[in-house]
Please model this.
Amino acid sequence: MISDRTTVGIVGGGPAGLMLSHLLHLAGIESVVIETRTREEIEQTHRAGILEHDSVRLLVDSGVSDRVLTAGHEHQGIELRFGGVSHRIDFRGLVGSSTWLYPQTDVFTDLATARERDGGDARYGVTGTAVVDVTSEQPGMLFTDAGGTPHEIRCDVLVGADGSRSMTRSAIADRNEFFRQYPYAWFGILCEAPPSAPELIYTRSDRGFALISQRTDAVQRMYFQCSPDESADDWPEDRIWSELQSRLAGEDGFSLKEGRIFSRTVLPFRSYVCEPMRHGNLLLAGDAAHTVPPTGAKGLNLALADARVLAEVIERAIVGRDRSTLDTYPTRALSRVWRVQYFSHWMTTLLHAVPDASDFDKQRQLAELTAVVESEHGSRFLAEAYTGWPTT
Ligand SMILES: Cc1cc2nc3c(=O)[nH]c(=O)nc-3n(C[C@H](O)[C@H](O)[C@H](O)COP(=O)(O)OP(=O)(O)OC[C@H]3O[C@@H](n4cnc5c(N)ncnc54)[C@H](O)[C@@H]3O)c2cc1C
Model:
């Protein structure tokens, strides 16, 4: 067993963990990140794709990379489509802001490369992670490195950024868990086709929700609502295209550009919050503390927002020698978390078909959509929340 120490130990090398490590480095604070997957595995896992305005600024202004500005695509709005008709929500015109299409795989690559460039200590491919003594002055993380050597690293502050199946949060014995399960999931595909639209199309149809998104000029990402126990193997290409086309069909004759489907996955989701986000010297960040349904495109953005607040709080605790500031983290982080929970839940229920919905429910949902697109205030609320409330 190799024993070592650092200032901040971070379990999980996703966006939350790596961004935190980067921001701490800028503040002159040493950290070690441990991650079970290899860099290559993470770079090949497709997840989120939409960055809020402030997430883009964080990547660029903190010196991670400005690749998002050259390789990403600015989206100045989205389309809400229902009753076979599209309605544009003009972010720029309504709130003077925008979002950026930039895949999570690229965000990860930028962060991992920046950590390597700056001499950061991120250890990929570890196994057997455990956290110990989290309420003591010297909490620790135990793991076996990719070469098979066991390690123990003691630190001043330990951060659990280990994603939605977090092992670290189980160290918080009397945690409160708030969650909502949804009676539907998303069927996600990646296909080789040109874009069908320049911006995202969020569609509500009687057959269920669909989302048309993009990746590159030659690869597209699309989703449609399905049952959580759907099997991806039961969906040959023809069936997928027919389902997507019928959900998008309308009087304007819109149709999707089809192409070879090379990835299909069923993504169950839920709303979840773990409180408190701090226990002794263990603090949770990102999906380890909360998950949201993907409809509002918030999970990745919320993970980055946590990292920003946490870096600031840890800097004051370590450099300013005022450990009481750690107490402020849960309150500051949770005020955003719950607003994002509300928005993601609202977007989800606004657009998905409930399996046993009555005629009243369906009419009420259509009326709600109409109210959003026909009211400037309704559209502005959506634009403001989707592009992201300010993080500072
Ligand atoms: C399939 C899928 C699709 C998604 N699509 C969207 C989307 O379209 N829009 C959106 O906004 N969000 C989406 N999300 C959510 C978004 O990807 C997450 O919110 C975001 O990744 C959270 O970042 P994080 O760093 O908190 O967690 P993660 O990215 O999950 O990173 C946590 C890391 O910790 C590592 N880890 C886990 N356990 C251990 C351990 N014991 N020891 C060491 N390391 C460990 C994991 O390997 C992982 O790399 C999606 C999520 C999934 C799973």
